[in-house]
């Protein structure tokens, strides 16, 4: 368990050192927002289908 925590911390440290230009960051944020919205919509559709049946 301790080894996993150490690997996770070092991976996070490496990832935070990577420089991301603002345009790429904005694109990633938009992608994440779109992905989240699609998931919410699918979940709502699933609930509606469950309730209607």
Automatic annotation (TrEMBL):
Specify the taxonomic lineage: Eukaryota, Metazoa, Chordata, Craniata, Vertebrata
Q: Name one GO molecular function term.
A: ATPase inhibitor activity
Cellular compartment(s):
Endoplasmic reticulum membrane; Mitochondrion membrane; Sarcoplasmic reticulum membrane
Question: Which organism is this entry from?
Answer: Mola mola (Ocean sunfish)
Q: What name does this protein carry?
A: Phospholamban
- Function text: Reversibly inhibits the activity of ATP2A2 in cardiac sarcoplasmic reticulum by decreasing the apparent affinity of the ATPase for Ca(2+). Modulates the contractility of the heart muscle in response to physiological stimuli via its effects on ATP2A2. Modulates calcium re-uptake during muscle relaxation and plays an important role in calcium homeostasis in the heart muscle. The degree of ATP2A2 inhibition depends on the oligomeric state of PLN.
Q: Which residues cross the membrane?
A: 31-51
What are the recorded Gene Ontology BP terms?
A: negative regulation of calcium ion import into sarcoplasmic reticulum; negative regulation of heart rate
The subunit structure is:
Homopentamer.
Q: Which Pfam families match?
A: Phospholamban
């Amino acid at each position: 368990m301790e080894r996993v925590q150490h690997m996770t911390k070092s991976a996070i440290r490496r990832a935070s050192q990577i420089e991301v230009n603002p345009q790429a960051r904005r694109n990633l944020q938009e992608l994440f927002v779109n992905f989240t919205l699609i998931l919410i919509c699918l979940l709502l559709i699933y609930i509606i289908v469950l309730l209607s049946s």
